[in-house]
Amino acid sequence: MTSYTAIILLLAFAVIAANLPWMSNRILFIWSPAGDKSPWARLAEWLLLYFVVGALGMGLEQKSMGEIHTQDWEFYAITFCLFLVFALPGFIYRHELRHLIDREKKHASIPRKSLQDGQ
């Protein structure tokens, strides 16, 4: 695998992983909570996936370069913000779009009076 392919796969995995906590109602995809998954559980799962993607990136760097280069705090702040931006579609789906879709389905299932029935 070339380094270009590894970078593309890592970015694709990061985008998918950043959105997973908002797409699933299961905690860590293993067990289902009694009610809805809390926002804190979603954030904790998202943070855990950030570290998993970071570990995968470090592993790919070790394998392709032979060593892991030291990074300052700025690198980790940028990767954290990038992972945050990657999670935006899942967050919008969970908190905005899904409710709009459900409301439209609910309105579509209500039979509407025709104009001739009202006259």
How does this model look, in words?
This protein is mainly alpha-helical and 119 residues long. It has one domain. Helices cover 74% and strands 0% of the residues. The protein has five helices and no strands. Helix 1 packs antiparallel against helix 2 and helix 1 packs across helix 4. It is elongated and about 75 Å long. The termini are far apart. The mean pLDDT is 88.
Q: What topology emerges from the helices and strands here?
A:
Layout: H1 3-23, H2 39-65, H3 73-86, H4 88-109, H5 115-118
Helix pairs in contact: 1-2, 1-4
Q: Which segments are poorly predicted (pLDDT under 50) over 5 or more consecutive residues? A: none
Mean pLDDT: 88
Query: How many individual β-strands?
Result: 0
Shape: elongated
Number of helical segments with 4 or more residues: 5
Major sheet = none
Please give the share of residues in helix: over 70%
